[in-house]
Write a structure and sequence with these properties.
Blueprint (H helix, E strand, L loop, with lengths): L5 H6 L2 E11 L2 E4 L6 E8 L2 E5 L2 E5 L3 E5 L5 E4 L6 E10 L6 H5 L4 E4 L7 H11 L6 H22 L7 H6 L3 H10 L7 H8 L3 H12 L3 H18 L4 H8 L4 H12 L3 H12 L1
Helix pairs in contact: 3-4, 6-7, 7-8, 9-10, 9-11, 9-12
């Protein structure tokens, strides 16, 4: 079976940075800033979490995932509190990261539902609540392991009704998606992708649109533009980027880039630099 997550995580990394481990008492608000998502692990509750108009009561050990910045508030017993470990999640590319963009705004999942996660969670909690040499680095890495397990669960659980993880969970469409991810510069045709997926051209096109909410051509263009944006942030020359992502010239890349984002690559790079300053 092809590794559906490997190429995504290699090109668009997810890094964790723990910022709390221990008891959380009373009311605590988190503003949700700086393009960082957050992953909270509730070892012992209860916890009431609120964001916008939604309030969720958490009475069993659970994970709470905010893949994108969102202000939220925890309410716990002011004396006994709740035992929690919390980390910021930095998705490479920020709001442009295809993994972050494909996730729901909020996920609440009992820890017992995370298939294969018990060993990593036990070690994470053990390290998070002790003061050992190398603790922070280890807990950061373990948060990243848990995040990968969450992504696996979303792909394989069949609960994503549309978008990237629904496509990656499809037994045939995922073959075409991985092929595009691995070789974006290839001159893919609809026939090529259908053959890769082991489907007829018409069935592939209809199934892809149903699962992904877009056509294969539009998805490929978006993937190429995402890679181009990443390369622009790294300061690479536009001509080299065009070759690497499957456009034969700067002009061809610029046309696709503007069609997808509404801006030329240079305009986008100037705006991105200004927003980061």
């Amino acid at each position: 079976m092809v590794d559906r997550l490997a190429i995504l995580l290699e090109r668009f990394a997810v890094n964790a940075s723990v910022f709390h481990a221990g008891a959380l008492c009373g009311i605590n608000s988190l503003p949700g800033e700086d393009e960082a998502g957050q992953l909270h692990l509730v070892r012992r509750g209860p916890v009431q979490v609120s964001h916008g108009q939604q309030t969720v009561q958490v009475d069993v050990p659970s994970l709470l995932l905010y893949p994108r910045p969102m202000p939220h508030r925890f309410s716990t017993d002011p004396q006994h509190g709740a035992d929690m470990a919390c980390a910021n999640l930095h998705f490479e590319g920020g709001r442009l990261n295809p993994i972050s963009a494909a996730l729901p705004d909020f996920i609440c999942m009992p820890l017992t539902d995370l298939y294969g996660g018990s060993a990593a969670l036990d070690l994470l909690f053990e390290e998070a609540f002790e003061q050992r040499c190398g603790r922070t680095v280890m807990v950061n890495r373990l948060f990243e392991v848990v995040m990968i397990q969450v992504l696996r669960q979303l792909m394989e659980g069949g609960k994503m009704r549309g978008g990237l993880f629904a496509g990656l969970g499809h037994p045939r469409l995922r073959l075409a998606l991985v092929a595009m991810h691995e070789a974006p510069a290839q001159a893919w045709t609809l026939e090529d992708l259908a053959e890769t997926a082991g489907m007829s051209r018409s069935v592939f096109a209809a199934s892809f649109r149903e699962a992904m909410g877009t056509t294969p051509g539009q998805y490929l263009q978006g993937w190429r533009v995402s890679l181009a944006q990443q390369a622009l942030r790294q300061g690479r020359p536009l001509k080299r980027i065009a070759d690497d992502v499957g456009y034969g010239s700067e002009a061809a890349l610029s046309r696709a880039f503007k069609a997808h984002t509404g801006q030329s690559p240079r305009q986008w790079r100037e705006q991105d630099r200004a927003s980061a300053a």
